Amino acid sequence: MTSDRRVSREIVERFHNAFEKHRPEDVDDPISEGCVLENTAPAPDGARYEGREACLAFWKGVASSANLIFKAEEISAMGDRGIIRWQPRWSEREGDWVRGVNIMRVRDGKVVEGLG
């Protein structure tokens, strides 16, 4: 595994673990000052968040939600890209979950872009 790939995977795993463990404070460290987040909601084009504080506010809100249970299906990395396939569940009922994907770009050990 190349150094870039190893670093990207480590950062993306740390990022995702903040959601699985409901520890929004764990999102702080891996997010860069110039981070950009493109979200799928609201439809049809989603929202764009620019800058560290805007990205942190969004991600911390999601990570701190006690009603959401996140489960990683797969975490992988290729160079400066990390990919997380995940499932958020919002209740114990069988159909109350979806599948999603985050595509992250890592530079200098920090997330600079999140597409999800």
From TrEMBL:
Annotated InterPro entries: NTF2-like_dom_sf, SnoaL-like
Chain ranges passing through the membrane: none
Pfam families, per database record: SnoaL_2
Residues of the SnoaL-like domain: 12-113
Protein name: Nuclear transport factor 2 family protein
